Amino acid sequence: MNxxxxxxxxxxxxxxxxxxxxxLGWTDGRNVTIDYRWxxxxxxxxxxxxxxxxxxxxxxxxxxxxxxxxxxxxxSRTVPIVFGNVTDPVGQGVVANLARPGGNATGFTTFEYGIxxxxxxxxxxIAPRTRRAxxxxxxxxxxxxxxxxxxxxxxxxxGVELTPMDTRNPSEIERSLATFGREANSGLxxxxxxxxxxxxxxxISLAAQYRMPAVYPFRYYxxxxxxxxYGPNQADAWRRAAGYVDRILRxxxxxxxxxxxxTKYELVINLxxxxxxxxxxxxxxxxRADEVIE
Length: 294
Prior knowledge:
Elements: H1 8-23, H2 43-55, E1 61-63, H3 66-75, E2 81-86, E3 105-109, H4 115-126, E4 132-137, H5 142-158, E5 161-166, H6 170-181, E6 186-190, H7 194-198, H8 200-209, E7 214-216, H9 219-223, E8 228-232, H10 234-249, E9 265-270, H11 271-276, H12 283-288, E10 291-293
Parallel strand pairs: 1-2, 2-3, 4-5, 4-6, 6-7, 7-8, 9-10
Antiparallel strand pairs: 8-9
Helix pairs in contact: 1-10, 2-3, 4-5, 6-8
């Protein structure tokens, strides 16, 4: 897992996976044994864990994000891997193509890059006065940079000036948003990446402190106090990943199992946060919302 053991998202994803496994007849400690390793965004620790897990010669490894899949593949090109959420598995070299992965890994993607443009469109719908937006990204990740490019492609037509900011260091996040948030008509977009998930509470609190309307990629940002989110249900991907683990345990190969995209994107609005920010949420946005937090 790319996150820490005590992270609420780690618990939610593992719970969904175990539920899916149990429905397929697998119970940890009865007919399957599960070993856990927690990364907490530590690249060196993840590389070490990848080597440890491969040395155990498991039947299959479930991996969270490219930050874990890439070190696993560096450690072994034969041990089967199922990933729960990788944004661009082809671009990151994890699979040869989506329909026929061709190697030892397959799993579930999180985003089409085009979806990222909708985050800025949503921000403008919710806060029409927004003239400048900070985009929190990880410059070391291909998907993070590609999502920024997708946002950038629609920024001129929406009259918004973008400012990229790194998400890897908490003090850097705090310093950058403090400077940016002091100017009027400023907004925030957070793209995908492990570091943003790890620092999500800090990011949400800073957006509130500087009264910046913000759009996030996953539901748990909105339920954690963020203004709104638009993206796939990540727990669902982990529940579906249990199906691929089941098929591999029964003899199928990752190379033959197509990478699957999300089945649904969810729009979640936090009205409590909107009221604190003094925003009147447009009825057109509320009508499209899958969930409204009051």
